[in-house]
Amino acid sequence: MKKNKIIIANWKMYLSTSEAIKFITQNYDKLTNWAEKNLELIICPSPTDLYQIKKIIEGSEIFIGSQITSNHHSGSFTGQISPKSLKYIGCSHCIVGHSEHLKYLGEKERNIIPKIELLLELDIVPIICFGEEEKTIEPIKEIEKYMQPILKLLQKKAKFITQKQIIFAYEPRWAIGSGEAAKNKHIEIITSWLKTKIQNMSNSWKIIYGGSVSIKTIESLLKIDNIDGFLIGKASSSFQEFKKLVDLILK
Ligand code: PGA
């Protein structure tokens, strides 16, 4: 595998604040080494831990990403997190459209558009998640419906954002947390479809895969050559497991 694959560790709500800090401090040398030499490593802790973790990794090449953002800069939005605050903290990336937001937080697909706009305005890289809900052989129709307004927005802004970074994370919703990743052929079909849609807008945008990436599934997933990296949930939340996984990726 070539250098500079993107690895996004989406810690979800697996770690407490003290566990998250311990994860970073105890394994700092290894993590910074990967980030300097081999990987574009983006760690997405719980929102409450972003500030402290950013302080610890300050000066290293590890990136910090948020799992959440508001679709407004400020206002009467109890409990929400402004993208401006994320910028202030030093978040370089932010996940949007994650299926667990759609499923558990009542995220509306229409809110994803202004989130992407605000993040791009602030030069925070949006990690745009998308994927079919159920296992199906022909998921393009469903994905197309979800992606259409997003692609329309990007097309409209293409002239201004072509140099900016965007990461698309293909995450079949059924694969997330199931232990079973999608088949390579399936991933290749979807990512090639997206590639044809974005190729006239920018060549710096990346496409990665997420959904049960683990030491059991990685060997097969590494055979796909048209993806730029992985979004890793559960397997990134224990350093022992994460290290095994990254070692296999770097092999
Ligand atoms: P998982 O989660 O690796 O635990 O399946 C991936 C994700 O939801 O980003």
Topology:
Elements: E1 5-10, H1 17-26, H2 28-37, E2 39-44, H3 50-57, E3 63-66, H4 83-89, E4 93-96, H5 99-104, H6 109-121, E5 125-130, H7 140-161, E6 167-170, H8 184-198, E7 206-210, H9 218-221, E8 229-232, H10 239-250
Parallel strand pairs: 1-2, 1-8, 2-3, 3-4, 4-5, 5-6, 6-7, 7-8
Helix pairs in contact: 1-3, 6-7
This protein binds 2-phosphoglycolic acid.
Task: Write up this protein.
With 251 residues, this protein is an alpha/beta fold. It has a single domain, classed as TIM Barrel, CATH 3.20.20.70. It contains ten helices and eight strands. It has helices at 17-26, 28-37, 50-57, 83-89, 99-104, 109-121, 140-161, 184-198, 218-221, 239-250, and strands at residues 5-10, 39-44, 63-66, 93-96, 125-130, 167-170, 206-210, 229-232. The chain has an eight-stranded parallel beta barrel with strand order 1-2-3-4-5-6-7-8, surrounded by five helices. α8 links the parallel β6 (167-170) and β7 (206-210). The radius of gyration is 17 Å and the shape is globular. The N and C termini lie close together (7 Å). The mean pLDDT is 95. Residues 10, 171, 176-177, 210-213, 231-235 line the site of 2-phosphoglycolic acid.
